[in-house]
């Protein structure tokens, strides 16, 4: 026998509180229907959450007005790549300045901010910590300085910047008495806006760690007539040395691969030395550093 239809007073387009439905006159036994999902205690939904945003919207029904999604949850909601050390963190993270507003649910980590400020923004209908605030929250927990730089760069992608170096520096400077904040502040000068991927940042940091000057990022190279040739991942313009990172898109997007090959050949015709880096090179960048050093010396 099919289950009875849902009560018409139950919203079908969003999660809702059991207490709200009861106040609208929905009998409690109808709220125990197997046709309803229970993403969190006291919350029902006509459709089970299918995405992180759906799950967060369900939890938001039980959160106080000043509780925001934070840490790795904020990274995911804002579309920022996670540090590799946090790839497997499946918990939901929220933060509030008020102890009494910290929620207690399985799978949810509630943080309390003791700062005089907590920067938040509404994102897709959810209260989320800003990119700069998230950078500080996550950055103070990272052990390796390079991971802080990779995180900061990810906040300022060329095609989708969420913040600026100045904004990150300001918020880090205003954050007081938090373990790890000193390291975060120290890494700010190493950040670069306008990168396209984490591996590009890792390559740049490896070159500098190897004693080479810091290359410029995503600079456009033109020919002698000023015509566009290519936007180069990492570049030493005075020496005409270009470093390009080939990620998986070059394997899956053949048109992009062909265009990059054509542009790199054109660079070489113009007297540039082009060095290509692939994923396996990131495990040990010393050979890449040696190749770049030799190219710079050849100039």
Can you count the helices? Answer: 11
SS content category: alpha+beta
Query: How big a fraction of the residues is strand?
Result: 15-25%
Mean of residue pLDDT? Answer: 94
Radius of gyration: 25 Å
Question: What are the segments in which pLDDT stays under 50 over at least 5 consecutive residues?
Answer: none
Order of helices and strands: EHEHEHEEEEHHHHHEEEHHEH
Please count the beta strands (DSSP E, at least 2 residues each).
Answer: 11
Question: Keywords for this structure?
Answer:
alpha+beta, four-stranded mixed β-sheet, three-stranded mixed β-sheet, Restrct_endonuc-II-like
Describe the structure.
This protein is an alpha+beta fold. It folds into 3 domains: 1-62, no CATH class; 63-190, no CATH class; 198-297, VSR Endonuclease (Endonuclease, Chain A, 3-Layer(aba) Sandwich), CATH 3.40.960. 34% of the residues lie in helices and 17% in strands. It is built from 11 helices and 11 strands. It has helices at residues 18-23, 52-60, 71-78, 131-139, 145-154, 165-174, 181-187, 198-209, 249-252, 254-269, 286-297, and strands spanning 16-17, 43-44, 68-69, 92-96, 108-112, 120-123, 126-129, 216-222, 228-236, 241-246, 273-278. It has a 4-stranded mixed sheet. It has a 3-stranded mixed sheet with strand order 3-4-5. A hairpin with a 2-residue loop joins strand 6 and strand 7 (126-129). Helix 3 packs across helix 4 (131-139), helix 4 packs across helix 6 (165-174) and helix 5 (145-154) packs across helix 8 (198-209). It is elongated, with a radius of gyration of 25 Å.
């Amino acid at each position: 026998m099919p289950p009875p239809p849902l009560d018409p007073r139950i919203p079908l387009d969003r999660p809702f509180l059991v207490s709200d439905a009861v106040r609208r006159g929905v009998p409690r036994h109808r709220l125990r229907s197997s046709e309803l999902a229970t993403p969190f205690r006291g919350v029902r939904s006509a459709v089970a959450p299918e995405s992180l945003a759906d799950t967060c919207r369900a939890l938001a029904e039980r959160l106080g007005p000043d509780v925001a999604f934070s840490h790795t949850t904020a990274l995911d909601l804002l579309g920022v790549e996670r540090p590799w050390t946090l790839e497997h963190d499946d918990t939901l993270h929220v933060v509030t300045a008020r102890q009494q507003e910290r929620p207690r649910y399985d799978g949810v980590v509630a943080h309390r901010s003791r700062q005089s400020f907590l920067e938040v923004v509404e994102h897709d209908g959810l209260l989320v910590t800003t990119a700069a605030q998230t950078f500080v929250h996550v950055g103070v927990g990272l052990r390796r300085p390079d991971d802080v730089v990779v995180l900061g760069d990810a906040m300022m992608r060329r095609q989708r910047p969420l913040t600026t170096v100045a904004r990150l520096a300001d918020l880090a400077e205003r954050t007081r008495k938090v373990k790890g904040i000193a390291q975060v502040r120290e890494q700010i000068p190493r950040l670069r806006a306008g990168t396209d991927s984490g591996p590009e940042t890792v390559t740049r940091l490896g070159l500098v760690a190897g004693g080479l000057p810091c290359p410029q990022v995503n600079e456009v190279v033109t020919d002698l007539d000023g015509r566009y040739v290519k936007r180069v991942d990492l570049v030493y313009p005075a020496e005409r040395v270009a470093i390009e990172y080939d990620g998986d898109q070059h394997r899956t997007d053949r048109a992009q691969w062909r265009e990059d090959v054509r542009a790199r050949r054109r660079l070489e015709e113009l007297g540039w030395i082009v060095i290509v880096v692939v994923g396996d090179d990131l495990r040990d960048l010393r050979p890449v550093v040696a190749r770049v050093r030799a190219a710079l010396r050849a100039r």
